[in-house]
Amino acid sequence: MPSGNSYTLIPMTSFVIEYYSNEGYADLQTLKTMINYAQFLKKQLAIEMFVPVDRDGNVLKMPHHLKSKSLYDDGDVKSDDVHDDIKSSDEEKIYYTAQEKCFFKGFEVAYNGYSLIRILASYDHSIELSFNKIDSTFQSLTDIESLAGAGYEIYLSRIALKAIGIKSRS
What we know:
The protein has helices spanning 12-23, 28-41, 64-68, 82-99, 144-148, 158-164; strands at 2-3, 6-7, 104-105, 107-112, 116-121, 124-132, 137-138, 155-156. The protein is an alpha+beta fold.
């Protein structure tokens, strides 16, 4: 399951073999972690597992000023920007709160149409998933287990690791 500094989504059999071989024995905590992972894999896929959404399930756009911020920004605030900063601060808070609920790291919206949302892994654009807004399903995937079996390298977020019972190494 560990991959560098991150954990990746893997099938249940691989998880049991890897986790058990690293622990060397099956104590109650190991068994609980395995049960938690099995329950995690059975969760129905939802768009909010990948990208931030609002309370109604609508995809949130990254606040504009976060996209355009330069690494070399000097931080000067013009008087005209004060009202925008308050609005941006609220948008930023809502966005980051929603982002903290995502189970998978590194996904971005590539297309958000009337009935379809297409998302990509920012670290590997060959990982592309389509979400049907009308019936709230992913094309050819039903639950996290089907995603794990698809062979993609998907990184788990802190909230996913917490649900499984794994302490993150951040």
